[in-house]
Write a sequence for this structure.
């Protein structure tokens, strides 16, 4: 299991926002706003050789706020070229430009879904344009009842992939079959457990167990980590196959878990 660092950017600032709380109309509940720029975090990760982390641009593409996010992301990629991935507003038209900026991979969700289903044509074109080795698919998910209504009861629902800053449910269940279907088009997966993301309330054990029992490509889990004990659970339930990221609980983002302790626990 590896630790994968993160840099979330909103309104041109490094932030931590509660998962699923962000939309076009609302900025969401914010746990942390940094007083330093993204290059500070990138240098922390570079100095420890923590590759494979992700930058996420949280504003809507095409807005002044998104442009501010991108400017901040450039600072991080200039500081740690080739060491970070980037997601948020990635399309076929701009994917190569992110790689030229210094990102190792682009992270994509919304672009490859249409009307609640996977748009295999878009996915195929994107993978052929930049190469699957540069593509990460974000299959972040929330629990919904199989009848279609939102439902947080694990006993009556399944994990469904969500798009558009985690506000829109797709009709695609996150399962071994889905992971198999998409594996040829990407290098790895990034999966936020949105119902616990940013809440520091504990991990989604059921989701991690499902991901760990698959194990055919690198998968990074995000959501709810609040202690070293949680990291030990991720390692055990994920069969040491599932990498992990920590956001709001990290001391760099206002939490009480130290970066070096996390890195050591993940070894």
């Amino acid at each position: 299991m590896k630790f994968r660092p993160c840099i979330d950017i909103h309104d041109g600032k490094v932030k931590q926002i509660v998962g699923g709380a962000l939309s076009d109309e609302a900025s969401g509940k914010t746990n942390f706003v940094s007083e330093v720029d993204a290059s500070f975090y990138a240098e922390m990760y570079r100095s420890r050789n923590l590759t494979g982390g992700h930058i996420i641009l949280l504003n809507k593409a095409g807005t002044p706020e998104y442009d501010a996010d991108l400017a901040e992301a450039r600072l991080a990629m200039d500081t740690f070229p080739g060491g970070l991935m980037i997601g948020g507003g990635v399309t076929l038209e701009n994917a190569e430009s992110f790689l030229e900026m210094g990102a190792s991979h682009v992270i994509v969700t919304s672009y490859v879904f249409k009307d609640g289903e996977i748009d295999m044509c878009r996915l195929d074109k994107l993978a052929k344009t930049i190469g699957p080795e540069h593509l990460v698919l974000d299959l972040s998910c929330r629990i919904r009842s199989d009848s279609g209504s939102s439902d947080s009861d694990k006993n009556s629902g399944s994990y469904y992939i969500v798009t558009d800053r985690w506000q829109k449910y797709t009709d695609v269940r996150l399962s071994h079959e889905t992971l198999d279907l998409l594996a040829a088009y990407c290098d790895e997966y990034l999966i936020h457990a949105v119902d616990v993301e940013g809440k520091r309330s504990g991990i989604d054990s059921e989701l991690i167990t499902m991901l760990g029992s698959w194990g055919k490509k690198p998968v990074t889990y995000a959501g709810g980590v609040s202690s070293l004990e949680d990291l030990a659970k991720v390692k055990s339930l994920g069969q040491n196959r599932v990498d992990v990221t920590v956001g709001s609980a990290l001391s760099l983002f206002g939490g009480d878990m130290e970066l070096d302790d996390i890195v050591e626990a993940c070894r």
